[in-house]
Amino acid sequence: MISANTIKIVKSTAPVLAEHGEAITRAFYKRLFIRHPEMKNIFNMTHQETGTQPQVLAKAIFMYAQYIDQLEVLGGAVETIAQKHVSLSITPEMYPIIGENLLAGMGEVLGAAATPEIVTAWAEAYDALANILIGREEDLYVDREKSEGGFRGHKDFVVTKKVVESAVITSFYLQCKDGSTIPTFQPGQYLALTFTIPNTTHCYTRNYSLSDCNCKDYFRISVKRETGTPDGVVSNFLHDQVEVGAVLSVGMPSGEFVLKVEDKPVVLIAGGVGITPLMSMYKNLAQQTDRQVTMVQCALNSQARAFEKEIEAGKRAGVKAILLYDQPLDTDVLGTDYDQKGYLDLATLSAIPNLKDSAIYFCGPKAFMANTLSLLNTLEVAEEAIHYEFFGPAEALEGVN
Ligand SMILES: Cc1cc2nc3c(=O)[nH]c(=O)nc-3n(C[C@H](O)[C@H](O)[C@H](O)COP(=O)(O)OP(=O)(O)OC[C@H]3O[C@@H](n4cnc5c(N)ncnc54)[C@H](O)[C@@H]3O)c2cc1C
Ligand code: HEM
């Protein structure tokens, strides 16, 4: 139980956190990685450089301060964080390290405003939040360990097949190195893999969604080669240097962006490599249920498009696929090779049969997701029917251009 006095003090700091939250979390991460460089093996350092992780953590802490007396409001956020932590094999012993550096970051940014009274109240509040997360994470660890093929922490897997799916996406098939069966998972879930890359100073951990049906004896991940300045570290390593026989360190499947078992029709809307969790849902739906399914695939063009054959193979009565290219090649013929040019729009979405009675799942780049959510809102699709996932720290979609 958090004391009434602590609640009062923590709530009174909410406006300060709204103003300085990001500066505090930046100071926290800076301290953390200096004092505990081993944490670089777990955190995605690109999210640090681009600022997305400090923003998301600041927002989570600010929300916590605001709702410390109504923790039920935070239920959804707690689950998202716990699922992410479990994928990464976070342990209870790591919590005091994070807490100590977070409080020190607070002191560093707020200076004299961080009175001993405030610091003590936040220490109590942090412990309470940590205990909620540790409790939920332990439940998830135990559940997963008990499930078929389950384990705790990371385990060695061998790459048994590598398949080029498009000019930019390549799949990796993974099986347990010790020969045991792979754990069960729900369509839509992801893995965390930790990579040791030659000539680098720390390991790299990344999440990848499971892209195949959950009825196979392997995990499959499908990875887009990220290019830019600089090029993506792990995706290029996977494409260029990870071959059949390579051993990778893999955590248990996690995530709450999962296909719900219900009778409704399903609409899957994929942007680029965001198709991966939706492919797993599509293959399960096509093979294991008679639910009505519409797969809307948005890709650049035929070179970038992945999974053409698998989408075709999944077609049965009640399964339909719509293909959009926003930069078709001269050889891509509208009406024959693809269904629509440009981005997803109201006309295409509203033409989907039973859209408003469907469960809708979407995933893709941020601008694609913001557009999709805004279209669904315009069409007055019920909030409870809409499910989406980010390939990065969860952010708000409203107001994104
Ligand atoms: C739940 C979840 C599921 C995911 N599923 C998939 C999946 O199925 N398939 C898939 O391909 N990916 C997936 N991802 C994304 C994946 O985890 C990686 O983020 C992605 O592969 C890029 O990693 P990387 O190491 O190659 O790139 P990074 O090295 O992390 O770089 C990423 C991008 O940031 C840019 N960048 C790097 N440093 C900077 C900087 N200092 N300033 C500005 N920009 C910079 C790079 O140019 C690059 O474009 C998923 C992510 C999550 C969270
Ligand atoms: C009360 C304590 C904590 C809170 C409130 C918290 C909050 C969060 C949040 C909001 C996210 C983003 C989730 C998402 O949207 O994907 C996250 C991710 C993460 N957390 Fe925590 N966390 C806490 C403790 C810890 C601890 C103890 C560790 C151990 C090292 C840890 C490691 C991570 C990592 C590695 C990620 C993924 C970061 C990334 O992808 O860049 N967290 N956490």
TrEMBL record:
It catalyses: 2 nitric oxide + NADPH + 2 O2 = 2 nitrate + NADP(+) + H(+); 2 nitric oxide + NADH + 2 O2 = 2 nitrate + NAD(+) + H(+). GO terms for molecular function: FAD binding; heme binding; metal ion binding; nitric oxide dioxygenase NAD(P)H activity; oxygen binding; oxygen carrier activity. Residues 152-260 form the FAD-binding FR-type domain. This is Flavohemoprotein. SUPFAM superfamilies: Ferredoxin reductase-like, C-terminal NADP-linked domain, Globin-like, Riboflavin synthase domain-like. Residues 1-138 form the Globin domain. Gene3D superfamilies: Globins, Nucleotide-binding domain of ferredoxin-NADP reductase (FNR) module, Translation factors. It comes from the Bacteria. Pfam families: FAD_binding_6, Globin, NAD_binding_1. The lineage of its organism: Bacteria, Pseudomonadati, Bacteroidota, Saprospiria, Saprospirales. In the C-terminal section; belongs to the flavoprotein pyridine nucleotide cytochrome reductase family. CDD domains: FHb-globin, flavohem_like_fad_nad_binding. Keywords: Dioxygenase, FAD, Flavoprotein, Heme, Iron, Metal-binding, NAD, NADP, Oxidoreductase, Oxygen transport, Transport. Its EC number is 1.14.12.17. GO terms for biological process: cellular response to nitrosative stress; nitric oxide catabolic process. InterPro entries: Cbr1-like_FAD-bd_dom, FAD-bd_FR_type, FNR_nucleotide-bd, Globin, Globin-like_sf, Globin/Proto, OxRdtase_FAD/NAD-bd, Riboflavin_synthase-like_b-brl. PANTHER family: FLAVOHEMOPROTEIN. Its cofactor is FAD; heme b.
